[in-house]
Write a structure and sequence with these properties.
Number of domains: 1
CATH superfamily: F0F1 ATP synthase delta/epsilon subunit, N-terminal
Number of strands: 7
Largest sheet: 7 strands, mixed
CATH architecture: Sandwich
Helix content: under 10%
Distance between the termini: 24 Å
Order of helices and strands: EEEEEEE
Structural class: mainly beta
CATH class: Mainly Beta
Length: 80
């Protein structure tokens, strides 16, 4: 699935990933390929994405998330 992370200042990341772990307002959650469409708010914390066996982490300062057609769009307020 395609993950795109954007802040008001810059495009932080865009690429194909296998999984995304996010800091939701009501708790952490995971997204995998073919996830149902959704919109969610995010709190400050680590956004972790996996490509194969490799995981990368980006600290975000809150934001919103949209998932549709295997595209995960994260509009982060800031990247810490």
């Amino acid at each position: 699935m395609l993950l795109e992370i954007i802040t008001p200042e810059q495009n932080v990341f865009q690429g194909e990933v296998d999984a995304v772990f996010l800091p939701g307002k009501v708790g952490r959650f995971e997204l995998l390929k073919d996830h149902a469409p959704m919109v969610s708010t995010l709190k400050d914390g680590a956004l972790v994405y996996a490509i194969g066996n490799k995981k990368e982490s980006i600290e975000i300062g809150g934001g919103v998330l949209q998932v549709i057609n295997n595209k995960v769009l994260v509009l982060a307020e800031t990247v810490i």
